[in-house]
Design brief:
Helix content of chain A: 40-55%
CATH class of the largest domain in chain A: Alpha Beta
Shape of chain A: elongated
Strand content of chain A: 5-15%
Largest interface: A-B, 61 and 65 residues
Mean pLDDT of chain A: 86
Order of helices and strands of chain A: EHEHHEHEEHEHEHHHHH
CATH architecture of the largest domain in chain A: 3-Layer(aba) Sandwich
Strand order of the largest sheet of chain A: 3-2-1-6-4-7-5
CATH superfamily of the largest domain in chain A: SPOUT methyltransferase, trefoil knot domain
Distance between the termini of chain A: 59 Å
Largest sheet of chain A: 7 strands, parallel
Number of strands of chain A: 7
Oligomer: homodimer
Chain lengths: 249, 249
C-alpha cells in the first residue's frame, strides 16, 4: 500500500484509556494503516505499562507513544482537533460529521499541519471538558440499537476510512484470462469426451457443441485453470477410448 | 443508519477461532453494523463457551450463532463464499479483490441469495482446504510492513465498508449463482470421474480434491450451468464405470 502524502501529520489521541488490550489494539490498527503517532492522555497507569510491555506488532507504536497529563498539552501542536463520539450526547455543542465526511475534511487540513483524532475512554467516552478542545465531532455510522463501538475497533475503522482513498496500486492478480484459442482447444477435447461417453450423439451433436462452447466461455478460466481442465479431460478421454476402443474406433 | 436491503442475507463465518475476546469483538462489530448472522466452524470449545457466556452488546449475536464442524456445512446455502486473507499467501490460486471492490461484488450478489464472508483463525488464517470453498479472496489494504490485522478489527473494518454505502441499492443480477451445496455435489462427481479415469490416484487424491474444489469455485457457475456440467460428468462417469467395471468396482 502506498502511503498518502501527509499521513505522518496525523495523531491518534487516546484519553483515559483503561484497558491495556484496547491500547494494544488501537496501536496495532495504527501500525496496520501506517498512522504511527500515538498520544495518550492520563491512561490508567497499569494499563499503559502493561500495553507497552507487550511484544508483537504494535510494540513500536506503543514504545514511541507520548504521554500527557492534559488534553490541552496533547493537542497543542494540532491545527485541527476532531473528537469522536458514539453519538449519544444529549447536548450538542458541536457540529457532527459522519466518518466519511469527516475524513474528507481531515484530509483537506493535513497539508497545513498536524491533525488530532481523539478517542475517549471505554466507559464514558470524552467529557464535555475534553470535547471543548475539538473543532467538531466525528461519528461512525452504527445502528441505533447498538451505537457504541469497542475502542480498538473504532480506531481501526476510523483509520481504515482515513487511508482508504490514498492512491493505492492495484492488487496484482494471479493471472490474465485464457485466450480464445486456449478455450477452443479445451472445448474440442470436452466434445471428444462427451462423444466418447455417449452424451453427444450424432443427433444432438450440433446443439451440444454450442452448449459446450458457451459453457466453457462462461467459466471465466485463466490459462492455468484451462490447463488443469485440459489435463483432466485428456485423461478421461484416454480412459474412455482405451476401454472402449472396439466401439469408438 | 439506514439498513441496506439485503444485509440479512450476509453471514459472517469464523473458522477455528481461538480467543473468546475475538469472538466477542467480532460479534460486537456485527451488532454495531447490523449484520446479525454469525456462524462458527470448529471454534476452540472453551473460547466459544466463554464468549457465549459473556454479557454485553454482543450477547444476542453470540446466543444466535450457529456452530458447524466443517466449512462445507457452514456455507452450504451460500451462493457466494468470500474468504478473507492478510495477503501473505505465496501461491495464489484465487483472484483477490481489495475490500472496497469485493464489497461491491458482494452487494451485487446479495439480491440473489446468501453470501458468506469467511475469516480464519488468529494464528494461521484460513487453510488451503478452507480457501478451496471460496470463489475469491478479499483483502483489507494494510501496509506492507504490517499486513496482518487483529480478527475483531478485521471484522469491524469489513462490515463498516459493507454497510457504508448502504443507501445505494445494488443492481439485481440476471441469474443467481449456484449454491455451495450444488458446487460441492458437482465437485464430488468430478472427483469420481477423475478417480475412475486414473487422473486421481490414492497418492494424489487429497491434492487433487483441493485442486478440483478450487477449480469448480472459480468457474463462476450459475445453477443452470452447474446442472449442465453435472449431466456431462454423470454420463462420462457412467461410461467409465460401465466399460471398466472389472477394474474400478
Amino acid at each position: 500500500m502506498q502511503q498518502p502524502f501527509q499521513l505522518d501529520r496525523l495523531r491518534v489521541v487516546l484519553v483515559a484509556t483503561r484497558n491495556p488490550l484496547n491500547l494494544g489494539a488501537a496501536a496495532r490498527a495504527m501500525s496496520n494503516f501506517g498512522v504511527l503517532h500515538l498520544r495518550v492522555v492520563n491512561p490508567f497507569a497499569l494499563a499503559f505499562r502493561e500495553a507497552r510491555s507487550a511484544l508483537g506488532p504494535a510494540a513500536e507504536v506503543l514504545a514511541n507513544a507520548e504521554e500527557f497529563s492534559t488534553m490541552a498539552d496533547a493537542i497543542s501542536d494540532c491545527g485541527l482537533v476532531v473528537c469522536t463520539t458514539a453519538f449519544q450526547h444529549r447536548e450538542m455543542h458541536h457540529r457532527i460529521h459522519r466518518l466519511d465526511e469527516g475524513v474528507r475534511l481531515i484530509r483537506e487540513h493535513l497539508p497545513s499541519g498536524p491533525v488530532a483524532i481523539v478517542f475517549g475512554s471505554e466507559k464514558s467516552g470524552l467529557s464535555n471538558a475534553d470535547l471543548s478542545h475539538g473543532q467538531w465531532l466525528m461519528h461512525i455510522p452504527t445502528r441505533g440499537e447498538h451505537l457504541s463501538m469497542n475502542l480498538g475497533q473504532a480506531v481501526a475503522v476510523t483509520l481504515y476510512e482515513t487511508v482508504r482513498d490514498a492512491r493505492q496500486p492495484a492488487v496484482p492478480q494471479p493471472l490474465a484470462p485464457a485466450t480464445a484459442a486456449e478455450l477452443e482447444r479445451l472445448t474440442a477435447v470436452l466434445l471428444d469426451a462427451l462423444a466418447a461417453s455417449g452424451y453427444a450423439t450424432p443427433a444432438n451433436f450440433a446443439a451440444t457443441e454450442q452448449k459446450a462452447r458457451r459453457l466453457v466461455r462462461r467459466m471465466n478460466l485463466n490459462p492455468h485453470d484451462a490447463e488443469i481442465v485440459l489435463g483432466m479431460l485428456r485423461q478421461i478421454l484416454w480412459k474412455l477410448r482405451s476401454r472402449s476402443g472396439d466401439v469408438t474406433r
